[in-house]
Structure formats: structure tokens, C-alpha cells
From TrEMBL:
This is ABC transporter permease. It comes from Undibacterium hunanense. It is found in: Cell membrane. The chain crosses the membrane at residues 309-331, 351-384, 396-416. It is a multi-pass membrane protein.
Amino acid sequence: MFQYYFFLGIRSLRRNPALTALMVLTLAVGVAASISTLTILHVMSGDPIPHKSSRLFTPVMDNGPLKGYTPNDKPNDTQLTYRDVMNHLPAQIGERRTAMYGILMAIEPARKDLPAIEPEGSAVTKDFFAMFDTPFLYGQGWTDNDDKKAADVVVLGKKLAEKLYGNTNPVGQYLTMIGHQFQIVGVLNTWEPSPRFYRNATFGTQEDFFIPLASAIRHEITHAGGMGCTGDTAPGWQGRLDSECTWLSFWFELKSEGQRQELQSYLDNYAAEQRKLGRFMRQTKNKLFNVMEWLDEAKVVGNDNRLSAWLAFGFLLLCLVNTVGLLLAKFSVRASEVGVRRALGASRKEIFNQFLIESSVIGLAGGVTGLLLAFGALALIAMQSKQLTVVAHMDWQMLAITFVMSVTAAILAGLFPTWRACQVTPAIQLKSQ
């Protein structure tokens, strides 16, 4: 009977095209608005590295002065100083350790038809690639010896490599960066964790290149990003390195989540040692955040995003109320049909099933239309900025949710009109004919 009622529902859509189109469009607009907002919220709140997010930790330590400090104040910055980074890197704690900061470097392509460019990259240590499971298209990352020698080597992102060298393998070639020759040792495949949790938890496209942190320091390449400074800073590059300015990110990878307390003890002991040297005088508790805790601390998904989702679902509810009214109008004109069917022996349950399946057909049509509108809305959102391009895309989970939501919404909207249709008294309808 389901198949029979389903085809009846499809045929019923053509009885009153204007009313049917209005119901489908009302439902589609509500579904598209809620799904578009929910899709962005889903991408923003997702786990960017689920298989090891519970084993990756970033520390937050307060190196600020006592002046102006009150207990329970949060640290001025969640980044670390160069001095602390250099102390943490050789520490025998965890499986891997990496430090990084964002940079911009002028590149002179070997191809004469390409102008000089200044793409965005990161200065990192060798463990970065293994820690974050970056996929390589060609070659590999640099060695520990390259880090120690501050070698001029570079790993290119896929887009930059294709722009400079086409589809060929550029590993082994030299690229002129800031006037120096950097040897290409690897090319990353497409890798766009969303958000970029490892560097300030921002949304954006993949970095164009990666060079050793030691090489960036040797060339005195300034950082591209925020920096917090406390106290006086000596002039020059060495003054920055020796200062209490925080401008580098740092991550530990543990073998198991159970080593968290061991890492916490290491940080507390380190802070105590630095306190003897006149640093970390605030006695602020040293904190550790795994990936998901860090995204929550950084407020990647803010209250505004959640409020937008609730408003979108409120709009969907309003669309459902309108759909209820339209279904009541649609089913009310079929009272005589229901009366005849009841007189011929159809039960209220059969009438209920028929009309409910018809509502589901409307929901399916609204879902398909809503899906197309949602794709259009996400495309418009993605055009606003590069950051929104990363989050404004739909995956298979959201596709499934779209259809489930639309059909469920139509069924819920059709419950009351369907119940009203089942209350038709056959005798009264037959007498009125």
C-alpha cells in the first residue's frame, strides 16, 4: 500500500499546482536557511584531526609581570616566547614536539612569465609534518640535521607548486626566496584542516610553503600575526628573541592521553625553574589544552554562531506553521473524497496513512528544492572571503540531514491536517453530494 499511496501523493501534487508550489517553496526556504547555518556550524565545530586530537596538546603559560596583575586573571597571550620554545623543543617529554609561526616571504619564480609573489607560509620544526599527518604529493619533510644546521630547504603547498612548476615534480630544484636559494625537499598534497587549529585556530586555506624555524630565525624573518609583549624590549632582532614577547605556537604529541599528567608536571616544574630566574612571577596555573579543548578556549564557535543557528531553526518552525495552514487548506477541499472512501470501507488508519504519505512526498520535494537553495546560499557565502570558503561547503552527513529534516518537517506539519481529514463523517459528506 505504501507504493500505491506514494504514487497517489505524486499525483495529488498536480491537482492544485499553485498551492503545491507554495507549500514546497515554504518548506524549502525554511530547510535551506537552517541547513546552510547548520552546515557552517557543523564544519566550524568539527574535530579537525579526530584520530589523535586527544593526544595533541598546546600549553598556555603566563610570563606577564606582577604589576597590574590580580589573581585568576587569564594570560595576556596564548602563544609562547622564543626563549620558552627553545627550552621545550629538546625536552624529552611526549613523542613529538613542534614550534611554529606564520611568515610572508617574497618569491622570485624561475619562470619569466610569472611576477614576484609574496605568499603566506609557516616556519616550523621537522616534527610538524609527522605530528599533524600532512600528506605528501612528492618528496618528504626535512631532517633533524636540517633543523640543527638551519638549512635553506622548503616544502611547498600543492597550489603554489602547481603555479610555479605545473604538474611536474619540483623536488630537488632551487627556489629563490627573499634573495636566497632554498632547495625544495617536498610538496604537500591538499591539506586543509578546518580550522587551522595548530596556528591560532583560524579558518583559511593551506599555507603555500613551510621552511625550518631555525632558518627563519637565521634570516631574521619577522612573523605575520599577533604578538604580545610585556616589559621593555631591547632593539633589533636579538632583542625580540631575548624578550618576553609571545609570538610562537607550540604543540606536544603524547603517546597516549594518559601522559597528560606527566606533561602537566613537566610544565609546572619548568615554570618553577624559570621563577627562580626571575620569570613567571604571577603564579598563574599552567594550562594544557588538547585540540578540541583548544578550539573551545579560542572560541572558534562563538555565541553569535550558535544564536544564528537557533534563529535559523526558528525560521524553519515559522515555515512549518505556514505549511500546516496550507495543508489544512489542501486537505479540506478533499473532504468529499474522504467521505466516499470511508463509506466504501476505508478505515481511519488507511486515510491517515494516505494523507501522511502525501505530506512526506511534499517534504521530499521541499527537501530537493531546499538542498538546491542551500547549495546556492553556501556558494554566495563562500564568495565573501577565503575564510568562509573553507567552512561553506556541504558533506555527505549534511546531505543526509537535509532530506531527513525536510521529510520529518513535512510529516510533523502534516500530522494535524491529516488528523482533521480523518475526522470526516461519511454520512454528512454523502448527504451533501
